[in-house]
Amino acid sequence: MGYDIERFLGYVNEGLLCCICRDVLEDPLQAPCEHAFCASCIHGWLVHHNNCPEDRHPLAVTDLRPLHRYMRNDLNRLQIQCRNVSCGCAMVCSLESLDRHERDCEHRRMSCMNAGCPAQFERRNLDGHLAVCEHRSRECPNGCGFAIITAEDLQHNCIAELRTELELLRSEMICRGEETKQEMESRLDSQRRHMVQKESILQSEIEELKSQMSRLMADVRALLASERQHRQDIEQADLEKKELMELLKGLQKECRLKTSDGIQKPAIVRPLMRLESIKRKPKEVTII
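Below the sequence we write its predicted structure tokens.
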């Protein structure tokens, strides 16, 4: 059912009325033929019919859609009185905010929350009723914490109640302890598996580093051996150079003596001059 049109202030467009109950739309739904209905009205109609109640076009529940936005906006802007107007509420609000107001309305009728109490009153009188309600619960005056609802509850055994409460607390602590223990064991197992995986990865990396180190050491030893060989070659070259220099000096001296005696230079002088030019060039040696 929709909202009673008598509760609204001002003009209400005909298109905002339910085609079945003729009240203002509540939880509106729209058919493909653009006729609008209250959700409860059209669902009840389609239980026994399979067409639109207005123009008899075929209609199923799956065909229903939310109201067009512009119609929904017009509907939400309508001004309506609170349903508690007969109890003294003078509030007039938009239909969009009606539910929020009526939920908190001080004139709303409500029942007592205490078990067994049949009293009904306005929401504004709730605190006053709870203060004098015969069915309200009170704690034991002896301090055991037992909730006293009826006169028979005054005869309860405080020691028995405290023991019961203690047993409940002990059971709760045991359950919480078991839950905590299981959670910690689960975390430890997870961390243990993670550490094992990490250890395996680190071990593989260490083995790879050892292999790389072995190759580097082999390369270093090869370089050192090559360097020693080059040094030996250099020393041998220096020794041969010295011997050649001594030989050249002896040949040059002999040539000068023969020249001073007027003897023509032998053909060997030209190779000696070539050796002399070789002597002036520094020998290139590559050291690795």
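The two ends are 102 Å apart (CA to CA).
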